[in-house]
Write a structure and sequence with these properties.
The chain has 5 helices and 5 strands. A 5-stranded mixed β-sheet has the order 1-2-3-4-5. The two termini are 26 Å apart. Strand 4 and strand 5 form a beta hairpin. By secondary structure, it is α+β, with helices and mostly antiparallel strands.
Amino acid sequence: MIKRLFPLMIVLTFVLFGCKSKKPKRTKYEFLTAVSSDINKKCPIQVDSILKLENTVAFPIATFRYNYVLKYDTLKYDIQSFEKSLRKTTLNTVKTSPDAKMFRDMYATLEYNYSDTLGNYLFRIIIEPKEYK
């Protein structure tokens, strides 16, 4: 299930906004801010039964953050093992997905914040260009 989530999230970014900017000379930050704004108009988005995209945020120079709510029983399951597995899957997706090419080409840092259904912070996955280039 984890392997299906991240290609879907990246595809969702492109479906909601499109993969190319029509304005020349737009900075990376301006482009990512426009992508974020467009996606946020459609949020919250239920990605699957346990994952909901609440919003996105762009930061200078080229960082894009996804803020998710994760419906996950942290008492029943080991959240650290889940995070480790999710990080591997996320990194692989960023490295290999054609839909993530836009981020790779602009050397963007991708952040994935996860909180529980009560708003409690669970973990953050950060993927930097040095990891996928």
